[in-house]
Amino acid sequence: MKISELFKTKKVVYSFEIFPPKVESNISGIYDTLDNLSDLKPDYISVTYSAGGGSNNARSIELASLVKNKYHVEPLAHVTCINSTKQKVIDTIEALKKEGIENILALRGDRIPGSVCNDFKYASDLISFIKERGDFDIAGACYPETHPEAISSEVDIENLKRKVDLGLTHLNTQLFYDNDDFYRFIDKVRGAGINVPIQAGIMPLVKKSNVDRTIQMAATKIPAKLSRMIAKFNDDPTALMEAGILYATDQIADLLSSSACQGIHVYVMNNAYVAKKITQNVSSLIDGINNGD
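Above: the chain's sequence. Below: its structure in token form.
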């Protein structure tokens, strides 16, 4: 099933994002996670792609196939290009076709020193390449706080419009922690004529490692409310876990109150407990909106 069909039948699409186990790990170790995630009935599950290429990309395809063919949840398979040759991308596309996967998230990917290839420069190049080689729904990424490499928010939105015009069917946002940034972004992109559905990307800060990594991302703003939470609970793993879940729940509840939000995409970091708690907190809100209550 193509994900674009979900947006035609639902006011709010609800999804998770997971990543493949390391190559040296047994992929069966993720079965428990998927058992629990599939029980939560997400509309789809997004599967990340190894930025560095190599054998872990095959692991990503294997996991996307597992999501679709064992758990019967629609996968959104990530494909990156900055470090890939055209032949590598062709091989990936053909492997996804073979597994019956119809949805791709097309990304430039992070530059890795010594690995960057000149076959693709931008995600827009990848979108065109995929469109020529298969009947996929192609999703893209967007940045409520502006792409960190963009010279301005205006140029960032111009680039996003270019990608959408090439055939993107929906957008997932990068993580953010201040919903006002999301609302301002939506006003700008709609004003620029970008009308595809946009899901808000929510990453719960539930572990100290999550906090440290996020703070290092200079493009992601930490609001005062969240900063106080981190300062209070960062040395108490249990309290930080529950506080992070509550902060994400509060974010989602606010987003669902706005017609600007057409979906929630939760970066669950393979943590089924976090996914379950957040879903329990917001499922009645999503069901009420989708059922017209």
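The CA atoms of residues 106 and 137 lie 10 Å apart.
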